[in-house]
Specification:
Chain C: This is Cytochrome c oxidase subunit 2. The complex is a heterotrimer of chains A (about 625), B (about 210) and C (about 375). Chain A contains 20 helices and two strands. Chain A is an all-alpha fold. A two-stranded antiparallel ribbon of chain A has the order 1-2. The N terminus of chain A is likely disordered. Chain B is mostly helical. The longest helix of chain B has about 35 residues. Chain B is elongated, with a radius of gyration of 20 Å. The termini of chain B are far apart. Chain C has a domain of about 120 residues: Immunoglobulin-like (Sandwich). In chain C, the strands form three sheets. Chain C has a five-stranded mixed sheet with strand order 3-2-1-5-8. In chain C, strands 4-10-9-6-7 form a five-stranded mixed sheet. In chain C, strands 11-12 form a two-stranded antiparallel sheet. The chains are: A mainly alpha (about 625), B mainly alpha (about 210), C alpha+beta (about 375). Chains in contact: A-B, A-C.
C-alpha cells in the first residue's frame, strides 16, 4: 500500500482530491470543523449586524426587510450549519477512537452526510444573492413563511431538506457504529460519556428529524405546488407547522446539548484526574433527558391557545427535565471535589460552563411555568434563555472541545495564553450581551424587533448588549489567530498530551488512517487510565497483528449531493417558468444515477497487509 | 475475510445477510432507518388526521372513496409482502433461482398495486376534480398516499435493479444483505399501507 | 391562593426584589410593575420561580467556588493522583429528591394560575371585544355595542374584558405587559383571553409574534378609563356620523379629498358594519399617537400620509393609488390632517389620554 508511506509531500491538487473523495472519519471530521467554523463566523457576523442595528432606538443601520433576513439566517445558520456540524466534527473525530473502532459503520454514508450538509448549507445562503434570503424567522411559522415573497424561504426549505437528510444519515451511522463496532471489552457501561451522549443524540436525530422533513415537504408543497396545508383559506391549519417544527425543534436542543455535556464530562474528568463521579447516574440522566426531550415540544407554544390542560401538562413535563439536568451539574461538581484540578483553556471553558448553564437551566424552569411564560414568551427573556443554553452550553463546549481534541486531530497544541484570552473575552462578552436581555424582555422588548421606540427605557440595556456582542467577536478573532499561529509553528505533540483516560489518547496524534493497528482490549471505564495505573504504557491488544480491512475512497457522495443541489434550483424556479423543471430531472437523475451506481458496482474495500504494518513500525 | 471469500463463499451460512460485519451493520442501520421512516409517516398521518375534514366546500372522503378498488390494492400489496418472505426463505436456503422467481412475483404484484393507485388518482382528478390544490384535505390525502406510492416506486426500482445486477452471479455474502434490506423495506411499505387503508379509507367512508 | 400570596409578599426579600425590579422599565409598558390581573398572576409565578431558582443557584455556586479554590492544583502536586471515587448513593438521592420538591413548589401555582387565566365563566356577562390583527395594525370591535375602533382599545377600570382574537393574515400576538400576558392571534382559530386593569391610564401593547417588516412597529394602546368615561366614550362612538361635515374651511377641503380616495379603506364612523380594510378613523382626533408609534401632532399625520413606508415598512397603505402615482402634495395632506383631527367621539379626550400625550411629548423633546 503506497498510501501507508504517506510522508512524502502531496501536491495541492491531490490533497483536494483526497478530501473530496475521502471516507475516513478523521478527515471528514476536519471538513466538518472547517465548514462548521466558516458558518459559525458567518452567523456571528450576522449577529453583530443585528446588535449594531439595535445599538440605539429607531436606528436604521439596516432596513426592516434586511434585518428580518439577518435574524432568520443567524438562527438557521447557527443551529443547522454551525452548531450541528461542529458537534458532528467531534463525533467523527472522537467516537470511533473512543470505542476502539477503525472507522464508522458506513464510511461511504459518512462522507455523503458531510457533502449533503455542505451543499444544503450553501443552498440556504444562495438566497442572499438572488433577491433576498429567508426572512420568516428560523422557525418559519406559517403563514408568514408560506406567503413570504421571493425565493428566500424556498432556499430555506430546500437547503434544510438537503442538509437534514445528511444529518439523519449521520445519526443512523453513529447509532450503528456504537452498537456494532465497539472494541472487545467495551461494554455499554464502559463507554466514555461523550460516546454515550453522541449515542443518545443520534437516536434523537433519528426520531426528530423526520418530523422536520415532513414539515419542510408540506411547506414546499404549499409554496411551490399550490397545496393548502397551512392556508386557512383552503381549510388548512397553520398550527400544524408549529407542532411539526417543535416536535423536531425541541429534541434538536438536546441533540446539541447532550454531546456538549459529553465533552465537558471528558474534560472535567481528565483535568481533575478523577473518574467521573456518578457515571451510572450520568448515563441514566442522559437517556432520561433524551426521552423527556420528546415529551415537551409544546412548551414553545403556550400562547398558541392550546388550553390550560395541555399547557399544564407540558409545563410540568418540561420542569421534570430539570431533575436529570441537575443530577448532571452536581455530578460534575463532585467530580471536581477532591480532584487535582488543572486549569488550562479547555478546563476554563468547562468551569465557565457550569455557572452559565446553571443560569440557562434556571431560566428554563422559569419559562416552563406556563402562566409566567405568557409574559416571557417571544420576548428578549426567551432570547436570553436560549442563548444561555445554546451558547453557554453548546458553544462553550465546542470551544472547549476544540482545545481539548485539537492535539488529537492535528497533532499540535493550541496556544494556552491566547486560548485564555479568547475565553475571558468571550465569557465576559457573553454575559454582558445576554444577562441584561432577561430584563429587556420583561421591560417590554419583544423578540425579533427590528427597532424599538425612543423613551421606552430600553436604550441602556441594548447598548450594553451590543458592546458584549463585539467582545465575543474579538474573542473569536483571537481564536482564529491562535489557530493560524499554532498551525504555522507546527510543533508536534505526543499521542497523550493531557494524561488522558480514554482510548483516543492511546494512539498517536494524529492517528494513522487505520486508527488501531491491533484492536485494544478494554478492561473497564477509562481504559487507558486503568492500564497506566497498572504501569503499562498503552493498551493491551485484543487480537494478533492481522490484515486490516479498509473502505475505498469514493467521489460518488459529492456528486450525489451535487445532484440534489441542482434539483433544488429546479424545484424553486419551476414556479416561475416550467422550463426549470428540467433541472429537477437533471439533478434527480444525477442523484438516483449515483445511487444505482453505488448499488450495482461492487465496493469491497481493500486490505492493509500485516507485512506493511510491520514495515511501517520499522520491524 | 478476503474479497474472494465474500464474493465466492464456499458454503453459504445460515443467515448470509448477517455473516459479515458490513452485512450486520447494514441490517441494523436499515432497522434504524425504518424507525425514522416510521416517524416520517406518523407525522404525515398526524397531518392527515388534522385536516381530513378540511374539505373547504369540496369533495369529502365519503363522497370520494370506494372500498372495492382499495381492497384489491390491499390484497395485492399484502400478498406481495408474503411472496417477498418466500424469496427471503429461499435466500437462506441458498436457492437463488427460486428467490429470483419469488422476487419477480413480488415486483409484479407491486406493479399491479401501483397501476391501481395511478388509476385511482387519475379517477379522482378527472371525475371529481379533486387535486392537491382542491383543499387542505386534498393536499393531505395526496401527500400521505403519494408518499407511500413514492416508496412503492422506489422499492420496485430497487428490487428490480438488484435482481438484474445479480442475475448472472447468484448469491454471495456481499449481495445477500442488499436483498435482505430491500425486502425489509418492502415489508415496511406494506405495513404503512395497512395503516393507510385503515385511517384513510376505512375511517374515511365509515 | 391570593391571600396566601399576600402574606408571602410581605417578606422582606420579596419587597426588596420588587423594588429592584420595579426600578427597571417604563411605566405601563414593563411586565415588572403589574397593573392588571393577568400580569399580576404571571408576576407572582415569576417571583416564586426566581426565588426557588436563586436558592438553587446559591447552592450550586457555593459548592463550585469551594471546589475550585480547595482542589485547584498546587505547585509540585502535578502528579498527585486523587482518589477515584465512583459515586455516592446518598448524595445522588439527595440531589434528585430536593429538586423534585422544589419543582413542585413552582408547579402548583403554575397550574393554578394557568387554569385561572383561561377561565371563561364570566365571558357572557362581560364586555366582549373581537380583536383582529393585521399587518401591521389592530382592529377592535365591541361585540355588543356594535362599534369598532382601531389601534386604541378603551376599557373600563376593574372590569374583566374578554378578547376574542383572530388574524386576517399571518399570526400575530397580543401582548399588554403591564396588564396581562400574551395570546397568539391566529388566522385559523379564534383565541380568547381576558384582561382586567387595576388603574386608569394608557398602556402600551406590542405585537409579539414575528409578522413581517413592521413587526416591531405594530404597537397598540389600551386606554383604561373610569366606568363613567367608558360609557360616555361608547355613546360618543355610537353617535359618530358617516355623513359628518368638517367645520373649518381647510378641513372641508381635506374632507373632499378624503372622500375621493381615502374613504374606500378608512371609515370615519365607528359602526361595526363598516368593512375592516384600513384602520377605522372615528375618534381619530382623540388618538394618543399616530400610526401607533408617533407622538400625536399634525406634522406626524402629514408625515404619515406623505411617507407611510418610511414610518412602517411594508404596511398596507403603500398600495394606495395616491402613493403609486405620487399625486399627494404636502398642503393637501395638511388639509386632510385638519379634517382627521376634527373626528372626535367625545369633545375632549379622556384624562389619561391627555396626560399620556403630555408625558410623551415632554419625554421625546
Amino acid at each position: 500500500m503506497s498510501t501507508l508511506v504517506a510522508t512524502n509531500k502531496k501536491s495541492f491538487g491531490s490533497t483536494i482530491w483526497d478530501y473530496l473523495t475521502t471516507v475516513d472519519h478523521k478527515k471528514i471530521a476536519i471538513m466538518y470543523l472547517i465548514a462548521g467554523g466558516f458558518f459559525f463566523i458567518l452567523g456571528g457576523l450576522e449577529a453583530l449586524a443585528i446588535r449594531w442595528q439595535l445599538v440605539q432606538p429607531m436606528n436604521d443601520f439596516v432596513s426592516a426587510g434586511f434585518y428580518n433576513e439577518l435574524i432568520t439566517m443567524h438562527g438557521t445558520t447557527m443551529i443547522f450549519l454551525a452548531a450541528m456540524p461542529l458537534i458532528f466534527a467531534f463525533m467523527n473525530a472522537v467516537v470511533p477512537l473512543q470505542i476502539g473502532a477503525r472507522d464508522v459503520a458506513f464510511p461511504f454514508v459518512n462522507s455523503l452526510s458531510f457533502w449533503l450538509f455542505l451543499f444544503g448549507g450553501i443552498m440556504l445562503n444562495v438566497g442572499w444573492f438572488t433577491g433576498g434570503a429567508a426572512d420568516a424567522g428560523w422557525t418559519a411559522y406559517a403563514p408568514l413563511s408560506t406567503t413570504s415573497p421571493g425565493q428566500g424561504v424556498d432556499y430555506y426549505v430546500l437547503g434544510l431538506q438537503i442538509s437534514g437528510a445528511g444529518t439523519l444519515m449521520g445519526g443512523i451511522n453513529f447509532l450503528v457504529t456504537i452498537v456494532n463496532m465497539r472494541a472487545p471489552g467495551m461494554t455499554y457501561m464502559r463507554m466514555p460519556l461523550f460516546t454515550w451522549t453522541a449515542f443518545v443524540a443520534s437516536a434523537l436525530i433519528l426520531f426528530a428529524f423526520p418530523a422536520l422533513t415532513v414539515g419542510l415537504f408540506l411547506m414546499m408543497f404549499d409554496r411551490l405546488f399550490g397545496s393548502g396545508f397551512f392556508d386557512p383559506s383552503m381549510g388548512g391549519n397553520s398550527v400544524i407547522w408549529q407542532h411539526l417544527f417543535w416536535i423536531f425543534g425541541h429534541p434538536e436542543v438536546y441533540i446539541l446539548a447532550l454531546p456538549a455535556f459529553g465533552i465537558f464530562s471528558e474534560i472535567i474528568s481528565t483535568f481533575s484526574k478523577k473518574r467521573l463521579f456518578g457515571y451510572t447516574a450520568m448515563v441514566f440522566a442522559t437517556v432520561l433527558i433524551g426521552f423527556l426531550g420528546f415529551m415537551v415540544w409544546a412548551h414553545h407554544m403556550f400562547t398558541v391557545g392550546m388550553g390550560p390542560a395541555a399547557n399544564s401538562i407540558f409545563a410540568v413535563a418540561t420542569m421534570a427535565i430539570a431533575v436529570p439536568t441537575g443530577i448532571k451539574i452536581f455530578n460534575w461538581l463532585f467530580t471536581l471535589w477532591g480532584g487535582n484540578i488543572q486549569i488550562n483553556t479547555a478546563m476554563l471553558w468547562a468551569l465557565g460552563f457550569i455557572p452559565t448553564f446553571t443560569l440557562g437551566g434556571m431560566t428554563g424552569v422559569m419559562v416552563a411555568a406556563a402562566s409566567a411564560d405568557f409574559q416571557y414568551h417571544d420576548t428578549y427573556f426567551v432570547v436570553a434563555h436560549f442563548h444561555y443554553v445554546i451558547v453557554g452550553g453548546v458553544v462553550f463546549a465546542l470551544f472547549a472541545g476544540t482545545h481539548y481534541w485539537w492535539p488529537k486531530m492535528f497533532g499540535t497544541i493550541l496556544d494556552e495564553k491566547l486560548g485564555k484570552v479568547t475565553f475571558w473575552l468571550f465569557f465576559v462578552g457573553f454575559h454582558l450581551t445576554f444577562f441584561i436581555q432577561h430584563f429587556l424582555g420583561l421591560m417590554g422588548m419583544p423578540r425579533r424587533y427590528w427597532t424599538y421606540l425612543e423613551g421606552q427605557n430600553l436604550d441602556l440595556g441594548n447598548l450594553i448588549s451590543t458592546i458584549g456582542a463585539f467582545l465575543m467577536g474579538v474573542g473569536t478573532i483571537v481564536l482564529l489567530i491562535n489557530i493560524i499561529k499554532t498551525s504555522v509553528k507546527n510543533e508536534k505533540v505526543s499521542g497523550d498530551p493531557w494524561d488522558g483516560r480514554t482510548l483516543e489518547w492511546a494512539i498517536p496524534s494524529p492517528p494513522p488512517f487505520y486508527n488501531f493497528k491491533q484492536l485494544p482490549l478494554v478492561r473497564g471505564l477509562d481504559p487507558l487510565w486503568i492500564e497506566k495505573m497498572e504501569g503499562r504504557k498503552g493498551m493491551t491488544p485484543a487480537e494478533p497483528l492481522t490484515d486490516i480491512h479498509m473502505p475505498n475512497n469514493s467521489f460518488i457522495p459529492f456528486v450525489m449531493s451535487l445532484g440534489l443541489f441542482i434539483a433544488g434550483f429546479g424545484f424553486i424556479y419551476q414556479k416561475q417558468d416550467i422550463a426549470w423543471l428540467s433541472l429537477v430531472f437533471v439533478g434527480m437523475g444525477i442523484t438516483l444515477g449515483c445511487m444505482l451506481l453505488r448499488s450495482v458496482k461492487d465496493d469491497l474495500g481493500y486490505h492493509i497487509h500485516k507485512e506493511d504494518l510491520k514495515k511501517e513500525a520499522g520491524e | 475475510m478476503s474479497e474472494h471469500d465474500v464474493l465466492n463463499p464456499g458454503q453459504m451460512p445460515q443467515n448470509p445477510e448477517k455473516a459479515t460485519l458490513e452485512g450486520k451493520n447494514k441490517f441494523m442501520g436499515f432497522w434504524f432507518f425504518l424507525g425514522g421512516e416510521a416517524v416520517l409517516f406518523a407525522s404525515l398521518f398526524g397531518t392527515y388526521l388534522a385536516l381530513n375534514d378540511s374539505t373547504n366546500g369540496g369533495k369529502s372522503s365519503e363522497e370520494l372513496f370506494g372500498l372495492e378498488l382499495v381492497f384489491i390494492m390491499t390484497m395485492l400489496l399484502l400478498t406481495s409482502s408474503l411472496t417477498s418472505v418466500y424469496a427471503m426463505y429461499h435466500m437462506k436456503n441458498n436457492d437463488f433461482k427460486k428467490m429470483q422467481i419469488w422476487l419477480g412475483i413480488t415486483v409484479a404484484l407491486g406493479l399491479g398495486f401501483l397501476g391501481f393507485e395511478i388509476y385511482e388518482f387519475y379517477h379522482y382528478i378527472h371525475e371529481y376534480e379533486f387535486t392537491l390544490r382542491s383543499s387542505a384535505f386534498g393536499s393531505a390525502f395526496y401527500t400521505l398516499v403519494g408518499f407511500h406510492g413514492g416508496h412503492v416506486v422506489f422499492g420496485l426500482l430497487w428490487i428490480v435493479s438488484l435482481m438484474i445486477r445479480n442475475a448472472k452471479r447468484g448469491l454471495n455474502l456481499y449481495n445477500a444483505p442488499k436483498f435482505y434490506v430491500a425486502s425489509l423495506y418492502w415489508h415496511f411499505i406494506d405495513v404503512v399501507w395497512v395503516f393507510i387503508f385503515t385511517v384513510v379509507y376505512l375511517m374515511g367512508v365509515l | 391562593m391570593k391571600e396566601w400570596m399576600g402574606k408571602i409578599r410581605t417578606l422582606s426579600l420579596f419587597s426588596f426584589l420588587v423594588i429592584i425590579l420595579s426600578a427597571c422599565g417604563k411605566d405601563n409598558l414593563t411586565a415588572l410593575v403589574p397593573k392588571g390581573y393577568g400580569a399580576e398572576e404571571s408576576f407572582n409565578v415569576i417571583l416564586i420561580s426566581i426565588l426557588v431558582m436563586i436558592f438553587v443557584f446559591i447552592v450550586v455556586m457555593a459548592i463550585y467556588v469551594y471546589v475550585i479554590f480547595k482542589f485547584r492544583q498546587r505547585k509540585g502536586q502535578e502528579n498527585h493522583i486523587p482518589k477515584q471515587t465512583e459515586g455516592n448513593k446518598t448524595l445522588e438521592v439527595v440531589w434528585t429528591v430536593i429538586p423534585i420538591l422544589l419543582l413542585i413548589i413552582i408547579a402548583v401555582p403554575t397550574i393554578a394560575s394557568t387554569y385561572d387565566l383561561a377561565d371563561e365563566s364570566e365571558k357572557e356577562d362581560s364586555i366582549n371585544v373581537n380583536v383582529q390583527g393585521m399587518q401591521f395594525w389592530w382592529n377592535f370591535e365591541y361585540a355588543n355595542e356594535e362599534i369598532q375602533t382601531s389601534q386604541e382599545l378603551y376599557i373600563p377600570v376593574n372590569e374583566r374584558v374578554y378578547l376574542n382574537m383572530l388574524s386576517s393574515d399571518v399570526i400575530h400576538s397580543f401582548w399588554l405587559p403591564s396588564i396581562s400576558g400574551k395570546m397568539d392571534v391566529n388566522p385559523d382559530n379564534e383565541n380568547t383571553m381576558y384582561i382586567e386593569a387595576y388603574e386608569e391610564g394608557v398602556y402600551w401593547g406590542k405585537c409579539t409574534e414575528f409578522c413581517g417588516d413592521s413587526h416591531s412597529l405594530m404597537d397598540f394602546k389600551v386606554v383604561v378609563v373610569s366606568q363613567e368615561e367608558y360609557d360616555q366614550w361608547v355613546e360618543g362612538m355610537k353617535n359618530t356620523d358617516p355623513e359628518y361635515t368638517a367645520e373649518s374651511s381647510t378641513a372641508q377641503e381635506g374632507q373632499e379629498m378624503f372622500a375621493n380616495s381615502c374613504i374606500s379603506c378608512h371609515a370615519i364612523d365607528a359602526s361595526s358594519s363598516n368593512p375592516v380594510v384600513g384602520p377605522n378613523l372615528a375618534d381619530f382626533g382623540n388618538r394618543t399617537m399616530v400610526a401607533g408609534i408617533k407622538n400625536y401632532s399634525k406634522e406626524a399625520i402629514v408625515d404619515w400620509i406623505m411617507n407611510p413606508g418610511e414610518i412602517k415598512p411594508g404596511n398596507g397603505m403603500l398600495s394606495a393609488p395616491y402613493l403609486q402615482d405620487n399625486s399627494m402634495e404636502e398642503e393637501d395632506a395638511e388639509k386632510i390632517a385638519d379634517f382627521l383631527m376634527e373626528l372626535k367621539a367625545t369633545d375632549e379626550p379622556v384624562d389619561s389620554v391627555e396626560q399620556f400625550k403630555k408625558d410623551e411629548t415632554e419625554n421625546n423633546n
